[in-house]
Amino acid sequence: MLDDDRIPRDPPTPDVPTRLRRAGAGGVATVEKTLAVLEVVADRGGATAKEVSEVLGFPLPTTYRLLQVLVGCDYLVHLRARQRFELGYKLARLGVSLHRQVGVPVPVRQRISKLHETLGTASYFAVYRGSDVVVAHVADCATHPRITPLNFGFHEAGHATAFGKILLAAMSREDAAEYLDTHGTERLTSTTITDRDELEHHLAEVSRRGVAWEREEFVPTKACAAVAVHDASGAVMGAVAISTPDREVDRRRAAEVEHALRSAANEISRWLRTG
Questions:
Q1: Where exactly are the structural domains of the chain?
Q2: 16-93: what fold?
Q3: Does 149 sit behind a cis peptide bond, omega within 30 degrees of 0 on the bond before it?
Q4: Per-residue model confidence (pLDDT) at position 10
Q5: How far apart are CA 71 and CA 273, in angstroms?
Q6: For position 100, what pLDDT does the model report?
Q7: CA distance 21 to 132
Q8: DSSP conformation class of 245
Q9: Which residue has the higher pLDDT, 24 or 235?
Q10: pLDDT at 110 over 90
Q11: Pairing status of strand 212-215 against strand 236-245
Q12: Residue 215 CB neighbour total at 10 angstroms
């Protein structure tokens, strides 16, 4: 789970029907449909069967059947008096389990807070789970707020975020190409790098320098920078990052940010190696 429940959430996923069409028929499609129902109920803060049916385009009998499966497994509860379905208690157990897996040790949290105070920027610790970037801890304040939108995981913005660029730069050329084939290079702002050749050249520079920057590529008016964190084997397991108004980043400020990020990332890497 994210460290702070103040982080805003995105609206319901718009491409669920597209994903379902790709799933085809059979058991996989049934699982996809069941999970899509769960996502709609979660995104809407509860929903009636009719609302779920309309959002997903499922026949009402199919929707009822899938809802009852989720109720039977305790992933949803049926509030009969209100004819609504809401999230069940088993999801809380899953959340606790996920938090245990990506929980941030106190020394790491303290180091991210120190980075926030030193630079006067929102500061982040992200970990990589497969090909997903999970923002595990954020240190910010009213004067230096975090970027928004900021979800638990970034699925399709790796090419446009400093976190994601660190991950992509650490991959082999083949793995990076597969990642981009899967997730795409959507243009999020007017400065997002969407050309694959240009992005490949940019990632080579990230790999060479050991620091990733994005200037208004993910969110207008914001700049972000990140440096890799390594595990005991030397593999990239996450990143330390900051975000700040782009207008405040001149050459001198960029050098200050990079120095502070490298220092924080090195300290956290050492702590993770030794415990």
A1: 16-93, 103-274
A2: Arc Repressor Mutant, subunit A (1.10.10)
A3: yes
A4: 40
A5: 43
A6: 60
A7: 23
A8: E
A9: 235
A10: yes
A11: unpaired
A12: 15
How many Å apart are CA 204 and CA 227, to the nearest integer? 14
Q: Is the pLDDT of residue 99 over 70?
A: no
pTM higher than 0.70: no
Q: What angle do CA 244, 220, 210 make, to 5 degrees?
A: 50
Distance between CA atoms of 30 and 189, rounded to whole angstroms? 36
Identify the H or E element spanning 84: strand 84-87
Q: What is the DSSP string of 102-163?
A: HPPPHHHHHHHHHHHHHHTSEEEEEEEETTEEEEEEEE--SSSPPPSS--SEESS-GGGSHH
Q: Return phi, psi of residue 136, to 5°.
A: -95, -25
- Class in CATH terms, 103-274: alpha beta
Q: Which of 201, 219, 202, 220 is nearest to 211 (CA)?
A: 202
The rounded distance, in Å, linking the Cα atoms of 67 and 77 is 9
State the average pLDDT for the chain: 86
In the chain, what percentage of residues exceed pLDDT 90? Answer: 66
Q: How far apart are the first and last CA of the chain?
A: 22
16-93 matches 103-274 in fold: no
Which residues have a Cβ under 8 Å from the Cβ of 194 and sit 6 or more positions away? 159, 185, 186, 187
The model's confidence at residue 96, banded by pLDDT at 50, 70 and 90, is low
Q: What Å distances lie between residue 104 and 99, 107, 112, 241, 246, CA to CA?
A: 9, 8, 10, 15, 28
